[in-house]
Amino acid sequence: MLRTRKIRWLSGTMVLLAILTLLLPQALLPQAAAAQAQTSGIDAVLVADVSNSMNTSDRDKISNEAMKLFIDMLPVQGDKVGIVAYTDQVEREKAMLEIQSDADKSSLKDFIDQLGRGPYTDVSVGVAEAVNILNHGADPSHSPMIVLLADGNNDFNKTKGRTQAQSDADLAKAVKEAQDQGIPVYTIGLNADGKLNKDALADLAQQTGGKSFITDTPDDLPQILSEIFADHAKLNVVKLPSVTGNGSYQEVTVNVPNDSVLEANISIMSSKPVEVQLTDPSGQAVDLNSDAAKLSTSKSYSLVKLLKPQEGDWKLRVKGAPKDSIDINLLFNYDLQLVVDPIKTKSYTKGDKVDLAAKLENGGQPLQDNDLYTDMKATLVVKDVDTGKSEEQPLENTGSGFAGTFEVPDNHNYELIIRAEEDSFYRESAPITINASGAAGSGSQPTTSGGEQDKPFPWLPVILGVIALIVVGVAAWFLMGWLKRKNRGFVGQMIVEIRDENTGDKSYPQYKKLVSFRGRFHLHQLLQLDPELKETEKYVFTPSNGDRIIIRNTAGGTLEKSGRAVDASSGVELKNGDRLSIPLQQADKTILIEYLV
């Protein structure tokens, strides 16, 4: 009876949704889309070369510190991050994780700390896998990006017959896909041994619309990562004067310019531990693990994140080791958008003038605090779509916005973007398209004859059509649900080891990606159908909600989960980081599994 009621409730809900979809004014749909667009964030895949060559080009594991600092600099909620560690194959991978808490950030950083190193290198493997992850796990409303940390050199396994030409072809394919999907690749070249292939990394960034950086010290990371965020998320970076440690607390003023700042990142780079204290503009001490501020630390940095900070001068007190250089950078995240007033939608010709006006908005409303405009400059960026050339011209700051005029220079198509910036702020407007190619625009609207207007509206066919649509929709919904369950995919990977109970020896860990499986698979498939391990056929995996997996012993029996025996006959749920120990009676071996998302 309960299931029947549930089906009736779902059916009724589907009918209501279908009717609302048909009858609600279509004018509301763009508003819903605009609301969705305002939630856009970043979807990033961090790609790290973990080959043995990095033992010399990245002796201090700067790549690990860079990835962790990148994660700490992200907002507390909303963005998604995936990780790929590669040699000439994908060694470890973490699927896109939506950051909802500090615990999510800690999970990502713990994964980074566990990365090992292995032989051979093929840059195309890491880039191609990152593009694939974004294609399958990114949020369409978010802005995708890839950050590649490598020395840019390849070292192929000669026994596999892999050639540079094959790698170049695979990389070119991944680059083309990134270009088509609007995925910029930012490269950080690690050059501790002076053998960096900087041209290859710079070319990769240039082709995809990213930027390329080079470093051999973690001290450069705040500036590099801040510039990456500034370029991708349209922010500006403020670098404060460096502090030379003297063993005592030293005070630095951090000015929050206005109340539109959502977050401020204060990165402190020091090779030795530092002590940090913070007071707000009223002089009150701030708890660095509270709703007002968060402190994150690693071996080469400390990062203080101010959350919705009060406008004014904050006092940061830093105590470092004597003679230790302490670099401090600010990165502001504003809850503001630069919006251009609508222009007339028509075709233009050479010599026509287009009046432009833009202003800052907060939550869809004009900015109330005009003081933010005081030192701001605005620029009109004009791209000739036909020739690919771009030009810039300054706009007037009116004190409550920006204004200017664009004169169409030729009978071409143009894309206009307005950019506003000052020391700690940067925003770009959505692009405006100007059609001056000579194609006449039709402003006429379709008309009907008087006889057609007099005809009564055909209500009966419409009502019957709506009922038929609802019936078909409900049936399709149940069918799609069934197909979805049947063909549901998996995410993440499993690390598999086999322990011989007679000798105690364990096999080399094997990393098994699960994306190729659909609906269900059994453990024997994961073990490459080894005849000796045939009894593992009775262990079946099926996907569950929230990137989890259910393992069930179809023949009944127990297994160990995190050291505790559990009944697997009715199913055991696995989440990220869970470990299993499955004893085999016939082979006298134990299968050890770790599930990672």
Q: How would you portray this structure in words?
A:
It is a single chain. By secondary structure, the chain is of the alpha+beta class. The protein is 26% helix and 35% strand. It has 12 helices and 33 strands. Helix 4 (62-73) packs antiparallel against helix 5 (102-113) and helix 6 runs parallel beside helix 7 (164-181).
- How far apart the termini lie comes to 38 Å
**Main beta-sheet annotation:** 9 strands, antiparallel
* Tertiary shape: globular
| Percent helix | 25-40%
Annotation field: number of helices: 12
Residue fraction in strands? 35-45%
Q: Strand pairing plus helix content: what structural class?
A: alpha+beta
Average of per-residue pLDDT values: 81
Rounded to an integer in angstroms, the radius of gyration calculated over CA atoms is 29 Å
Count of individual beta strands? 33
**Stretches where pLDDT falls below 50 for ≥5 residues?**
1-40, 440-454
